[in-house]
Amino acid sequence: MQRYTYIHISDLCWSSKLYYIVGVTDYLSAEISTSKQKKFSLVTFVDTPGLVDGDMVYPFDVNSAITSFGEQADLIFVFFDPMGQALCKRTLNIVEKLSEKCGDKLRFYLSKADEAGKETDRQRVMMQIVQELCRRPGLNKCGFEMPTIYIPNPQKPSRCINQIDEVCETIEKSINQAVQKTLDQLEKDCNLIVSTINQTLEQDRMNVSFNKSNRFNSFLCGVLGVFLPSLFILSFIISTFAPEELDSLVGEGLAKTLYFSTAIVVYLWDWIPEDGQIVFVLIFGALCYFMLFLAKYFARQGSKTLSKREKKKLVECSDYIQDVVKSKKRKLYEEYLRQCAAEYEF
After folding, report:
1. Total domains in the fold of the chain
2. CATH number for the domain including 67?
3. Residue 240 has what pLDDT?
């Protein structure tokens, strides 16, 4: 009976697919080990049920569950039991399917190698396993390896070579790669966050400038749309007053200014032929209406801007990432390098 063990570095990330596989969660159980040897605390092992051919019915879709776990894991260990001789078609079907998506994660081992009998018996079992694997195009790869592993029993010594230490080295190597990858990804994420904040603040400054320009255009068009017809009407009203009456009403200085401006408007009006004055009024009214329309249009073109509180939070977040998170990442990376150097010297 062949079994799969999925090795996931750090915390196990459950795939969202598993929640759609009916019955899987009812058969999950957890065991916690406090050991710190071989970086054991950084590893999560997921042991799947052994697969057998025939009419064996599982209470859930075991094939989908195993492939979903495989996509989430960092390493996939396939243990071949020498008693089963890897003749289980169901197992090899899933191994081949996993190889399509997770071929670089797969590791094959002959477990319980000390129970395979003599060396000749063990070689015969391994040859049978290799033959079964080579019959499948997805598993027929160069450089195929299948170390022999077993748990040593002092009361039952065996002359079989035990390569279980290589398993531990494979896991430790994966842990080191995961740690380095995580730290590198942390720096990339920090740079991405800071860059996004800077882009947001820069876009906000552009929006503020754009809004100011729109407000100015709206104000200018609104003033022209109201001032021009008001000046036109006021000019004809003022022209009906005598200079002495206007001086007594608004004062001599203001009266001169009003007379000067109205004289220009009246002169331009007299310059227009009588048969074209109605057309001029229509065009002038349309122009004033267009100015008011532009004022309303520019007023609606404003972009959303950040409040002072929001900008302050973004700046604080950027400073925190630059001063705290990045410096902590550097310390973690230096600590990681020291540990690697210490292990190498040891």
Report:
1. 2
2. 3.40.50.300
3. 65
Average pLDDT of the chain? 77
Contact call for residues 89 and 46 (beta carbons, < 8 A): no
| Residue 8 CB-density burial (10 A; 0-12 exposed, 13-18 middle, 19+ buried) | buried
Q: What integer pLDDT is reported at residue 335 of this predicted model?
A: 76
9 and 50 in a single domain? The answer is yes
Q: Are residues 243 and 288 in the same domain?
A: yes
Token digits for 67?
């492939």
> Backbone phi, then psi, for 108, in 5-degree steps?
-110, 135
In a domain, 177, yes or no: no
Residue 79: partners with Cβ closer than 8 Å, 6 or more residues away: 2, 3, 4, 5, 109, 110, 111
118 & 237 share domain: no
Distance (Å, whole) CA 301 – CA 316: 30
d(CA 334, CA 346): 18
The string of pLDDT tens digits covering residues 138-164 is 777 766 788 888 888 888 877 788 888
Q: Which of 203, 1, 26, 195 is nearest to 112 (CA)?
A: 1
Q: Is the pTM of this model over 0.85?
A: no
Give a yes or no: residue 24 inside a domain: yes
| 168 inside domain | no
**112's torsion region: left (phi>0), alpha (psi -120 to 50) or beta?**
left
Q: What are 300's two structure tokens?
A: 């609606």
Shared-domain flag, residues 187 and 152: no
Instruction: Determine the distance from the C-alpha atom of residue 115 to the mean position of all C-alpha atoms in its chain, rounded to a whole number.
Output: 49
Q: Rounded distance, CA 327 to CA 187, Å?
A: 10
pLDDT number for residue 276: 74
d(CA 205, CA 199): 10
Q: What is the pLDDT of residues 14-37, one digit of tens each?
A: 333 444 566 777 778 888 888 777
- 100: containing domain: 3-162
122: closest CA among 158, 88, 154? Answer: 158
Residue 30 sits at φ, ψ, to 5 deg, of -125, 145
Residues 57-71 have a mean pLDDT of: 83
Looking at the DSSP bridge assignments, the partners of residue 78 are 4, 108
